[in-house]
Each structure stands twice: as C-alpha cells, then as structure tokens.
Design brief:
By secondary structure, the chain is α/β, with parallel strands linked by helices. The chain folds into two domains: about 35-195, Rossmann fold; about 215-355, Rossmann fold (3-Layer(aba) Sandwich), CATH 3.40.50.10490. It is built from twelve helices and twelve strands. The strands form three sheets. It has a five-stranded parallel β-sheet with strand order 4-3-5-6-7, sandwiched between helices. The chain has a five-stranded parallel β-sheet with strand order 9-8-10-11-12, sandwiched between helices. A two-stranded antiparallel ribbon has the order 1-2. Helix 4 runs parallel beside helix 8 and helix 10 packs parallel to helix 12. It is globular. The two termini are about 40 Å apart. The structure holds 5-amino-5-deoxy-1-O-phosphono-D-mannitol. 5-amino-5-deoxy-1-O-phosphono-D-mannitol (M6R) binds near residues 78, 80 and 132.
Length: about 375
C-alpha cells in the first residue's frame, strides 16, 4: 500500500521514514475475555518470551554504558517506578552497580546533581508520560546521556533517548499496567545479567519460568478468586516484603488501590513497627510477599507480629506456614527470580477484588492510561 504525506500549506509531498510496528491487531481486542485486564494478565507468559527477544550486542553496549557511568539514575512513575526499584536491586545484586531511582515528578528538584557524567534511564510503558518527559528534558539540558525502556515504539521518550530497549509485549489497553510491568522487569533482568556477561543464562532461566507460571495459572486464578470473595468488604490492605520484595509489595498495593478503590499500602516489612502496625485491627488483610529467599524468615516474623494484632495473613510464597490464613502458592525458582512468580498472584487478587466490588477494572475512575499532563 502506497502512502503519500502532503503538506497542506505548501501542497508539497513530504518524505517520511516508514517504520514497521510488529503489533498484532488482535492484541487490541478482548477476544472472549470479560476485560482487557484479565486478558493481559493471562498473556504474560507470552509477553515474557517476547520481551526476551532483544539484540544481544545492544544489550551488552547498554550494560557496559551503565557500568561505566559515574552516576546512574532511573526515573519513572507509578508501576514503571516499581519496576525501576526492582531493576535497581538487580543492578546492585547482579551487576554490582549502585543506582538511584527518582520519581519523575520529583526529578527536577535534583537537577543540580545531574551532569554529563550522569546516565538517566527512563522507564515508561507509553513513552509519553509528561512527568518523565519533563525530567528527561532537564537531564538533557545538563548534558546527561539518556537510555529508555519503553513499550510504545517511536514514542516521544524513545525518540529522546540515546539508546532504547522496547518491551515487545504488544499494546496494553487496560489502564492498569500488567504485562508491561512484568516485561519491564524482564528487561531489567537481562540488562543486569548482561553486566556480568550472563545474558544466555538469564534468558534460559526466564524462559523456564514463563512456562512454570503459565502452568500455574488455573490454580492461581482459583485461589485469588476465593480470597477476593472472602476479603472484599475490607477497607485497608497492607502489602509487606523485604529487599526486592518490597518493590513487589508496593506494586501489589498500587494495583489494588487503582482497581478496587480499597486503601492499600506497600511497605518494607521491617518498617511496620515504626508506625503502621498501629493500624492493624481485627481482620485487616496483610499480604506478605514471602518467597523462599534470604528475606523469608524475617518477613514471616513480621507477618506474625501483625497476626498477633488480629491481621489476616495472605502469604504469597512457595513455602507452607501456619502463619498464613490464606496461602497463594508460587513456583519454586532460583532465588533472584522470585519477583516474576509473585507478580501474577497480586495482579489477579486486585482484579478479582475489583470485580467482586462491582468495579470495571479496565476503566478505573479518575485515571488515564497515559498521563500526558504535569
Ligand atoms: O506509561 P507509563 O509507564 O509512563 O505510566 C506510568 C504510570 O502512569 C502507570 O504505571 C500507572 O501508575 C498505572 N495506572 C499503573 O497501573
């Protein structure tokens, strides 16, 4: 098909580069699903596989760029920021590279510390979020280099960047980030592993995990639906986790708030005793992100402290425990990969809670898919 672009003022033909976007138009339909959100949650094993398809040389180039930069700052909003917090942990744990994460709407307040020796990594599904764009403009003005991790091909953020990694997970229609969040994490894993030349190992592990979580979907749907039915009348949920699981907990709380309008907070489990534990009452649900990693015993003990004050504990874990009133069993995977196993259970819990409360998860009130205003 030939396309001509004419400038209406001058009547002259304009030359434009043609870019092919590999998105299947069926991704923009609900198929037989009730909501886009559930469709997008369930297609995540496929999304993982697609996100893993990245150019190895580019990955290596960017990994080296990150390692060599004097200072690395990741900037993002909402769910993308929680993905960034997971990425920050992975960069440190796997690549030995410390970096900071700054919420994009706060980025400008740190501009005095951004210079030509700074690498800023923007994370954004839409590639159009105004706060992120604003931060990147400031960073560019100060001479920083820009990398980005985005979903929408050729979006403004992608075009502003020196290097881009695309999520390749296809269009996300539901307002809540689901598959884009998991895909962002996948990109962070392979970037972090590229830092010590282990991309092939990471890809193999992640491919196996995609299959494990795919097989677990029927069980995960059944258990989260049951928990949603029995907890739908609660007003507050607390999500706790330590280390990398704190970021996973924060994302779980955000999903619940935006879809079901239940107040939820995600926090480092160790922080409870510094104030929030005062809010725990009889039957308050506490979701413990508690896989069998080095945080396991301490998070379990923090969950127990809330149980002693009346909380109902929803444990997302591969280990059984009598502390859990509800147990969402996840797959056993190599320790560093546990966030991938914990994300779908919390998305499904938020989805079913929204549905139980009669809310439309695809169109949460007051929210837009892409926030293009400051
Ligand atoms: O398109 P972006 O990733 O830049 O969007 C950032 C946030 O607006 C987005 O993640 C928002 O928090 C979602 N509603 C979360 O589900």
């Amino acid at each position: 098909m030939a396309i001509e672009i004419i400038d209406l003022k001058t009547g002259k033909r304009k030359e434009k580069e043609i870019k092919t976007i590999e998105w299947d138009s069926r991704s923009a339909t609900k198929d037989s699903y009730e909501h886009f959100m559930i469709k997008e949650i369930l297609e995540q094993p496929i999304a993982i596989r697609k996100s893993l398809s990245q150019d190895k040389e580019k990955l290596m180039k960017m990994a080296i760029g990150i390692l060599r930069s004097r200072q690395v700052i990741i900037t993002a909003c909402g769910s993308s920021r929680y993905a960034a917090l997971i990425g920050r942990y992975l960069f440190s744990k796997i690549g030995g590279k410390f970096c900071d994460v700054i919420i994009s709407s706060e980025f400008g307040y740190f501009k005095d510390s951004i210079d030509k020796n700074t690498l800023v990594i923007a994370v954004s599904q839409s590639g159009e979020t105004a706060d992120v764009l604003e931060g990147l403009k400031e960073a560019k003005k100060n001479g920083a280099e820009i990398y980005s991790i985005v979903n929408v091909v050729d979006s403004t953020i992608a075009r502003m960047s020196d290097e881009v990694l695309y999520l390749n997970c296809g269009p996300e229609i539901g307002v809540a980030a689901t598959k884009s969040f998991l895909s962002q994490i996948i990109i962070f894993y392979i970037l972090a592993f590229a830092m010590n030349n282990k991309t092939d190992y990471a890809k193999k592990q992640l491919t196996n995990i995609a299959e494990l979580i795919e097989n677990a979907l029927p069980y995960t749907i059944e258990i989260t639906k049951k928990i949603a039915k029995e907890t739908k009348d609660q007003n507050d949920f607390f999500y706790i986790g330590r280390g990398i699981n704190f970021a996973v907990a924060s994302e779980g709380a955000l999903k619940l708030k935006e879809l079901s309008y239940i107040h939820a907070e995600g926090m480092p489990a160790g922080e409870l005793k510094h104030g929030t534990i005062a809010l725990i009452e009889d039957k308050t649900p506490v979701v413990a992100i508690n896989p069998d990693d080095h945080t396991y015993a301490e998070t379990l003990s923090n969950a127990e402290e809330t149980k002693a004050r009346g909380a109902v504990i929803i444990g997302i874990s591969d280990n059984e425990s009598e502390v859990y009133d509800y147990h969402i069993k996840i797959e056993k995977v190599s320790k560093i990969f546990y966030p991938i196993a914990c994300v779908i259970p919390e998305q499904l819990l938020a989805y079913f809670l929204a549905v139980e409360r009669g809310k439309n998860p695809d169109k949460p009130r007051n929210l837009a898919k892409s926030v293009t205003v400051k």
